[in-house]
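I had to read the description of the data format several times before I understood it. For illustration, here is how one protein appears when written out as sequence plus structure tokens:
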Amino acid sequence: MGNEGSYWVDQDKGELVLNNEGIEERFYIEDEILFDGSKYLVLIPVEDEESDEALLLKIVEGKDESFLSIIEDEKEFNKVQERYLNS
């Protein structure tokens, strides 16, 4: 997965669809986290829902749309991860 991608929610299936450079990936939204004025999503891949791994992505608001981005700052990632694990 690249650094960022557009997304939409498939309401019928309850899945988030991430479009990254023309490749669609589907995820279950495990949790939404509001932290320090930003919103983050914890995502579980639909194809591998039994996995213990999840993605933690930041919602970035653009002019016309929002997109999901990886959290490049390690301190920010660790703080959001801690908030999720302690909720």
Summary: Residues 27 and 45 are 4 Å apart (CA to CA). The chain has one domain: 4-85. The chain has a mean pLDDT of 88.
